[in-house]
Amino acid sequence: MGAGAVQGMGAGVLVLLLAGSGCSRSDSIDLAAIRGCGLDQEFSGLRVRVLGDFPASGGSELLLGPGEQGSIPELPAGATGVAAEGLFGTTTTAIGRSWGVDAELGRGRLPGFDDAPVLSVFFAAPDSLCEVDTQPSARAESAAAAHPSGDVLVVGGLDGGGALLDEVFHVDLLTGEGRALAARLPQPRRGHSVHAIDGRRFVILGGAGPNAVAQDRVIVDVAGPGSVTVVDPLEVDGDALVSSDHATASSPNSARQVLVAGGCDVVDPQARCDPASALAATHWIDPAQPSATVQLPPLTQPRFGAHAAVSPDGVAWVAGGVGSDGDRLGSVERMRPGEAWTIVHELPEPGSVRGLALLDDGLVLLSDDAGLIHWWSEAGSGTLDPTSRAPPLALVSSERPMLALPGERVLVDTWLFTPGTAAVDPASGRVELPPIPRYGGQLLSLHDGTALIVGGWITGTQELAAAPLLRLRPRLDGPDEWTPELAGPQNDAFVSNAPGRATVIVGGLRLNAIAGESDALPLVRAHVRGFRSRTLRLEFSFEAEPGSTAHVILGQGSETLVAIALQDPLVVRRRGPDGSTGTLDCGPPASAAVIGPLVLELGADGHQLRLESEAGTLATCELQWPSSAGVSVGFGASGAEGARFFGLRLARR
């Protein structure tokens, strides 16, 4: 994309014109704001930033006053989006981010832009929860999915009287408009899942109607008037894969790899699972390819109605649900690549898991029906204090889904919180989202960093929410959206895998280690919240307390990490996604002392690590990562006491 002009904006108008020479087009590209909520005042300025894993520069960022115009040079290679921030003085009062950088997605879809290429931006106040303009009827237990094309499909479920629904509802996120398709499901159903496939199409898998589990797949195309088509089922070794109330999770690394776990294959007249038919089977599926299903090891416990997650390094997790005896389960199972499922944690009785969220570095969060949030990692387990680290939640009788946002905050009910924050006051990370508290809705992560709540009940009642669709616009703190000032006044720049063991101090961070071998991989770690990169520079100094070792760490996903033990001699260790560990050959032993200030650099698209001191190079390593996703950076402490890190400065290279 080439150079262009940007105009300042009022409460609801934002236009960015980009010449198309760099995209082999001569036409301009419009950046159109889809108005959200909380836009009640005029702005004194507009900041526009091109997002991506590259340093901020004058060529990719500009600040405009009211009515001013400016220019944006050619978008850098690897640009992932365009952010716009409305300012009132120095305060950011409204934010938005484009739906990627493919302006062809919006061509012909937004009213007023005719057939022009356009980037759509949902623009709203930071941490605001907005009702979608056009709503389906109130419902529970529907299934929904978001598509990279900017579409959301909401399918089936139960109405307020408990009747099964056959409605198919489409939301175009690039326009903010919704509609019920004229075409409907071949039969009403619950317990199904919905997945994006090619074009603007979705596939519906499994589920059940009265006394019968669905045998087919249903393809829904939302282009034009929309259509619903019944096709052949998924297959495993030539047999149909049939289940209802199964858990699913998409791989962050491949839109065509989805984990399907558990479920049931016998239902009653209300289409509810018969516990005796609970399944332990798990599979990787490609929703668009019926014959591409890969059978995985079975779960340790058969279960239906469970929750699932997959980390960027390919580690899969399943928690909660109902077992074959009809009892609610409080266990968490993990499957590393190439290994079997293993129970890694279980809530104390009578606790049962009602929701699951997974943060990088292996921090697992579990919600229950009593209003508590529990955590587990290799560093330990516990319950988050509902007066500080977790929100005060009501008792519920339904599921309580959670969603990890790009900035490593977590959405539960209508609250945001930061469970692993190193802030001095952990309660500062809690945000209650008005206007109507609710629980039990499905939570969808969207391509522009926003999130969608689908369905659910009004908190404190058994009444379904009248406006089932709410869109959350979190603040811009995702992997490519910010680079925190680690030594500045901001105190929420770090998150830990062991809540309570990392604390921001003046100018830095302190980690409280767990007693053990000082030369082992550190159990207690903290990384920069939300920040991910394949090309970075971190300046720091450290001080290890007696009997302890300080570490600087790069990580990806739940398991994969590279830890440099800052000792004499310096040792670099790696742990892979399968849990295997080893020592990396990073060149000849360093002749320089391992004392600060130090500089860690990651380059060559994340494959080369260099650690330097003022006296010379300490280590140069070649690295391999399980995926092309960004890498986190942070610190660890092992041994008897802990370690302190200060003089911190982080930048993209």
Summarize this structure briefly:
The chain has 653 residues and is mostly beta strands.
What do these coordinates show?
By secondary structure, the protein is mainly β. β34 (402-404) and β35 form a beta hairpin. The chain is globular and about 70 Å long. Among the domains are: 4-123, no CATH class; 354-475, Lipocalin, CATH 2.40.128; 494-652, Jelly Rolls, CATH 2.60.120. A 7-stranded antiparallel β-sheet has the order 43-46-55-48-49-50-51, with no helix packed on it. The protein has a 7-stranded antiparallel β-sheet with strand order 44-45-56-47-52-53-54, with no helix packed on it. Strands 15, 16, 17, 18 and 19 form a 5-stranded antiparallel β-sheet that branches. 52% of the residues are buried. This is Kelch motif/HYR domain protein. It comes from Enhygromyxa salina.
Which key features would you list for this structure?
Jelly Rolls; 7-stranded antiparallel beta sheet; single chain; 0% helix; mainly beta; Lipocalin; disordered N terminus; Kelch_1; 653 residues; Gal_Oxase/kelch_b-propeller; Kelch-typ_b-propeller; 56 strands
In the CATH hierarchy, what is the class of one domain? Mainly Beta
Shape: globular
Low-pLDDT ranges: 1-27
**DSSP strand count:** 56
Structure classification: mainly beta
Radius of gyration from CA coordinates: 25 Å
Helix content: under 10%
The average pLDDT value, as a whole number, equals 90
Query: What is the percentage of strand-forming residues?
Result: 35-45%
CATH topology of one domain: Jelly Rolls
Number of helices: 0
Query: Gap between N and C termini, in Å?
Result: 22 Å
